[in-house]
Amino acid sequence: MSQEIEKAVVSRHLLAELAIRSAISLERYNLDRAYDDDVLIELADVLTDTAGVSEGVPAGKYFAIGYHSPYMRLGKEKLGVSSVGEVQQRFVQMTADLKAFLANRDKELAMKLASFCADLHEELAQAQLSELRLARKRRARAGSKRSTASCV
């Protein structure tokens, strides 16, 4: 079995948490406060895994299962790109930028990355809220169907 198949993809919930923790860490850096490098390293790894590409490798025209919609919305609404390949390349660039920041601290790059991380968190959290609302509506409809059937 290949290593790619064996590797589990991180959940969108965990990625949303990593994104906001990374944004906070980068903001702390900009304020000259203690910050967490490890969360930035982990985010770079997860973005590589979920975006379906890595630096120097051509776009494969896919995202990890469950990531297509939020990544494409983020690409269109915040990154100004619309094709899968363009969105993937932006994620590759953000991953490279995270690694560059870790190698050579730069406040301007930290601000850019913090904004991206906050946008990523917002998109993933919004998707989760939409899924919860949909599930609640389905449960409500199923409950009303059961109560209607019991009245007959």
Notes on the structure:
This protein is mainly alpha-helical and 152 residues long. The chain has 6 helices and no strands. Helix 2 packs antiparallel against helix 6 (107-151) and helix 5 (84-103) crosses helix 6.
Please specify the SSE layout and strand pairing.
Elements: H1 3-6, H2 12-30, H3 37-51, H4 68-79, H5 84-103, H6 107-151
Helix pairs in contact: 2-3, 2-6, 3-5, 4-5, 4-6, 5-6
Please outline what is shown here.
This protein has helices spanning 3-6, 12-30, 37-51, 68-79, 84-103, 107-151. With 152 residues, it is mainly α.
Largest sheet: none
* pLDDT averaged over residues: 81
Distance between the termini: 55 Å
Shape: globular
SSE succession: HHHHHH
> What helical percentage do the residues reach?
over 70%
- Strands, count: 0
Number of helices: 6
Strand content: under 5%
Keywords:
mainly alpha; 6 helices; 152 residues
